Amino acid sequence: MIHIDGSHGEGGGQILRTSVALSAVTGEAVHITDIRSNRPKPGLSAQHVKAIETAALICGATAEGVAIGSTSITFSPQEVKGGYYNIDIGTAGSIALLLQCIMPAAAYSDSYIELNIVGGTDVSWAPSIDYLENVTLKALSKMGYRCKIDTRKRGYYPRGGGVVHATISPSKPKPHDFTEEDGNILGISHCSNLPEHVAKRQADSAKDIIEKAGYNCEIITECAEYPSTGSGITLYHGMKGAYVPGKRGLPAEKVGAKAAMELLDELISHSSVDVHLADQLIPYMGLAKGGSFTVREISSHTATNIWVTEQFLDVKFRIQKKGNMMEISVI
User: Fold this and answer.
1) Pairwise CA distance, residues 272 & 220, whole Å
2) Pick from 215, 238, 209: which is nearest to 131 by CA?
3) Three-state SS sequence of 114-130
4) Which CATH superfamily is domain 2-178+272-324 in?
5) Confidence band, pLDDT 50/70/90 cuts, at residue 125
6) What is the location of CATH 3.65.10.20 in the chain?
7) For residue 157, what is the DSSP state?
């Protein structure tokens, strides 16, 4: 059994998700302690519980200590099985983060895995579903990973109610060396139960800043009436993206401007991936036993994911400075 200190490094939910995912892939049981011990509300939240339960469901695992507020769990997996699974997070908990916990194991399933997930698609402190589809999955496809998602309803905080259908094919990751990509900046600006001009103002503000910086930009707008109320904007270019959710009292123009500036920070570095994608790629590179990318800085999430991945897999990562960037590779 592998023992993981949940307070290591970044010390958040990511250690939990990566540990459970790699446990399911390798078949190695894992005992995780001090889960989110440095957070205002330590232990498992509702969305963490649902992610572990879903992982246990697809690999026939025994999971002990899985309850809201628990700071220690034991996860003992068996074989990953294909099938159709209905998952209701029950809150506006992030669908993208739940999928982060499931996706590595699903690649090693004996057949297709289909998931119908209800929860949050566009919430704070998590990738948006548009980022997952247009940045994360695009990057993973270069490693041979195959996953399609269909966003049927958006879900915002606090009500949630978003619906995403994901189909993951057995597709073990292969090594890939990521390089900077050219092309136009694309984006999606959206709102629900709000005036259409909210999505348009977010988009116009972002586009104005991006075009003044010398880039071509195309942002589509969506306005609908979903169960929850909210807005947001996701921008993406190659293996880089930026997502900003709307917030009560925050003008739509500022939402769009923030997303534009965050993406431009990534683009001017000329790195191959953004700081958020970097940590997401680490487990897949470990499983592929190869690959590399450049990133403008090493975040605590990336450093922590490297540490967790090295606990489960017989791989080592190398970090070295490359101009004004950092290069991460499997050695």
Assistant:
1) 25
2) 238
3) EEEEEEECECCCCCCHH
4) RNA 3'-terminal phosphate cyclase domain (3.65.10.20)
5) very high
6) 2-178+272-324
7) T
First to last CA, the chain: 25
Q: What does the alpha-carbon distance between residue 162 and residue 245 come to, in Å, rounded to a whole number?
A: 15
- What tens digit of pLDDT does each residue of 155-166 get? 999 999 999 999
What's the CATH code, domain 185-267? 3.30.360.20
CB 69 within 8 A of CB 43: yes
Q: Tell me the three state secondary structure of residue 294.
A: strand
Asked if 13 contacts 71 with a C-beta cutoff of 8 angstroms, the reply is: no
Q: Of the listed 48, 176, 276, 301, which one is catalytic? A: 301
Task: Please give the DSSP secondary-structure letter assigned to residue 324.
Answer: T
Q: In angstroms, rounded to a whole number, what is the distance separating the alpha carbons of residues 271 and 179?
A: 8
User: CATH 3.30.360.20 spans which residues of the chain?
Assistant: 185-267
Query: Residues 200-240: pLDDT tens digits?
Result: 999 999 999 999 999 999 999 999 999 999 999 999 999 99
Active site residue 270: no
Q: How many CB atoms lie within 10 A of CB 42?
A: 16
Is residue 328 within 8 Å of residue 302, measured between CB atoms? yes
Q: How far apart are CA 157 and CA 27, in angstroms?
A: 35
Would you list the DSSP string of 87-144?
EE-SSS-BHHHHHHHHHHHHTTSSS-EEEEEEEBSB-TTS--HHHIIIIIHHHHHTTT
Q: What is the DSSP string of 204-231?
A: HHHHHHHHHTT--EEEEEEEE--SS-EE
For residue 289, count CB atoms less than 10 angstroms from its CB and return exposed for 0-12, middle for 13-18, buried for 19 or more: middle
DSSP E strands, the chain? 2-5, 30-33, 62-64, 73-76, 83-88, 113-119, 147-153, 162-168, 185-192, 217-224, 230-237, 240-245, 292-295, 317-322, 325-330
Indicate if the alpha-carbon torsion angle 16, 330, 141, 237 is positive or negative. Answer: positive
